[in-house]
Design goal:
elongated; alpha/beta; 6-stranded parallel beta sheet; about 20% strand
Length: about 325
Amino acid sequence: MTAGVGDSAPGGAVPAAGPAVAFPWRDRSVPWVLDLDGVVWRGDRPIPGAVAGIGRLRDAGVRVGFCTNNASLAPERFAAALVDIGVPAVPEDVLGSANVAVDTLQPTGRVLACAGEGVTAALAERGIAFVRADDPSLDDPAEVAAIDTVLVGFHDWFDYAAMRRATRAVLGGASLVATNDDPLYPAPGGLSPGCGSILAAIERATGVRAPRMGKPHGPMADAIRRRFGDTGVFVGDTLGTDAAMAERLGWPFGLVLSGNTASPDLDRAVLAPGTEVAPDLAGLVDRALAEVLPHRPGHERGAVIPGGGTAVVES
């Protein structure tokens, strides 16, 4: 059996700036690790200014990497998509929750992949036998009995049959593992159900809670440190996932309002020391390279971050 532990509404205006303060991430020798959905692109459309912003960071000598909970593609496909929009990238630049999750598995039987290409490619690379949840052979109880682990990741073909097969496998004794539990992700047409929404159906049906492997959980934090080092800057669009990831890493956080978080959400949030808010990645890069950022008054200590997690803001 498997053992283990357990992203992104259009943005609004940034709160009015107060007196300028020195930028806290001025060391350009540390990497920036960027979320993809809601930071670099929304669906297959690059967010305006993101490509140029990444180029400006690299021109300034900053290493830029990418970290995503989206398990629908393999790192090679994410790297190719980045190249397609004008961002030079290789697979090693992209750390995904699919690979992090698969790297934790030690199955003694087949894995049922209730997930997309990112998960199945990682399983194949590791030589782990698997079957997709849309395979009708799983309607045979003998096939279900051979399942050791059900691994849930984001995909867009989830239906009742897949839910039934995954549920029966878990009720039959298979472990349940999830790449992540993000309820939503920012698609071109608007917010859409994410992996967490798929996972919730299976957890509800089985009464089993899956360990989460992606942001903001321990396995992803460990993988980020191995890939990018012990210090860095984390940039994301989600308070409950990306801000919590930065907090777990002990890194400063850049929140962009181009994905899951809109300006009104900030009225209910308390941002951790070192957090900066910008309308998009381009705006955050502009501030970073100028090494000057505004102080934002008005946030009180002790508020709850929407989506989970707590933090405090310097006042």
